[in-house]
Amino acid sequence: MQVVSMLRTTQNKIYRQGIANPNELAEGFPTKPEELFGYQGLILGSVEAAFFTTAQQQLIKDFVDRRGGGLLFLGGRSCLSDGGYNIQPFGELLPVNLPNRKNTFQRNFVPAELTEAGKRSLICRIEENSEKSTAHWEVLPYLANYQDPGTPKPGATVLARVNVAGNRIPLLVTENYGRGRSAVFATGGSWRWRMQQPLGDDSEETFWRQLLRWTVSATPSRVVLSTKNATLEDDGQVELRAEVRDNVYLPTSAAEVQVHMVAPDGSAEEIPLRPEPLTQGVYTAKWNAPKAGLYVAEARAKDGTHPLGKDTWAFRREDGVAENFHREANLDLLRRLAEQTGGRYYKPQDVSRLPSEIVYSEAGITSRELKDLWDMPVILLLVLTLKSAEWLLRRRWGVV
Fold first, then answer.
1. CB 82 within 8 Å of CB 113
2. Distance of alpha carbon 92 from its chain centroid, rounded?
3. Which of 88, 106, 212, 258 is the 20 to 30 Å CA partner of 292?
4. Residue-level pLDDT at 375
5. What is the structure's pLDDT at 358?
6. Quick count: other Cβ atoms within 10 Å of Cβ 264?
7. Are 3 and 40 in contact (CB under 8 A)?
8. What percent of the chain is modeled with pLDDT above 70?
9. 3-state helix, strand, coil in the chain (%, to 5)
10. In the chain, ranges of CATH 3.40.50.880 domains
11. What is the CATH number of domain 31-217?
């Protein structure tokens, strides 16, 4: 993972670190999609919203929404509400609703604590064991400052909080947005987790490594290859699907897409993908995996002679497993089915009672049909015979 940073030293001067060549970010923050979309994540800290032009602000939104990149907001004197980030599109990108006030950044010592979601999150896992990681968080040094980020949005997840005199304020909040994701880490004082710990403690380093990895790891490339299932069971039919985007990450159906398929025995085959007529930028092909084993597919897309990118996907065919899928008895389900249908559940040792306990039951599906008497001649004749016999007897006895 390569980190490229821009540090504003004066109002019109920046200091660049981690650049790949002298021309990278030479003109400051990118103003074109081709420049910004080359990165996978973006971190904004200690810079006010007004630093970015209107076009750059929209470009940041497109970076998350269309590019699928990660955006991390940090706390500080010129961040969040104090930095004027209540405006759009930042207000839409943030996973929190910022307070409508200034002076939300406070220089006080506060302890950080994990939420239940944070205890399960890999971002906050600073020990290999989750219980040890939670215990380690409880003894981390106090943060040197904090910032009130406001209230989390309905789709956001709060991973950590700070305890301010019994009032718990969100510290680390994440949320998905469009094809990407955004997060807020509302402090500038996590350096104390490094400086106030023993020399061999790398909890702060581990936390930041995992937070940065979360920011960039799920960012898609311009070509994304996939299949419906990663495992084929007794059936080699597979549908290959590739999403292809151009240099500014807009879906394109003008590309040429080929999949290089490597079979388990090492043999290879080229499979052309065709554009879907109703979905822009999607290419598909149906193919049959003839043998059991692991298949590795590499999709490559190009627009004329210009390559757009590539992606690799692996899937596996396994034979003789479909009939063994979920062979274990689901006892709870069987008992519920018996109760809901008016039946009974028998254990193997109770099967001997089955013949004597089989009785007629209206459980299940039944059908009743009503007919008039004249539609049943035998019954009709029987009824007429009985009524006639009754009349004759009554007349003989003088009753009628």
1. no
2. 20
3. 258
4. 74
5. 76
6. 15
7. no
8. 96
9. 25, 30, 45
10. 31-217
11. 3.40.50.880
DSSP 11: T
Residue type, 57: Q
Q: How confident is the model at residue 323 (pLDDT cuts 50, 70, 90)?
A: low
> Can you list the alpha helix ranges (DSSP code H) found in the chain?
33-36, 54-65, 90-93, 116-120, 130-138, 192-195, 203-217, 331-340, 354-357, 377-396
> Phi and psi for 356 in degrees, rounded to 5?
-80, -15
* Dist CA 34 CA 39 (whole Å): 10
CA separation for the pair 282, 257 (Å, rounded): 10
Q: Using an 8 Å Cβ cutoff, are 388 and 394 in contact?
A: no
Contact 70, 113 (CB under 8 A): no
271 φ, ψ to 5°? -120, 120
Q: What residues does CATH 2.60.40.1930 cover in the chain?
A: 223-318
| Amino acid at position 354, single letter | L
CATH architecture label of 223-318: Sandwich (2.60)
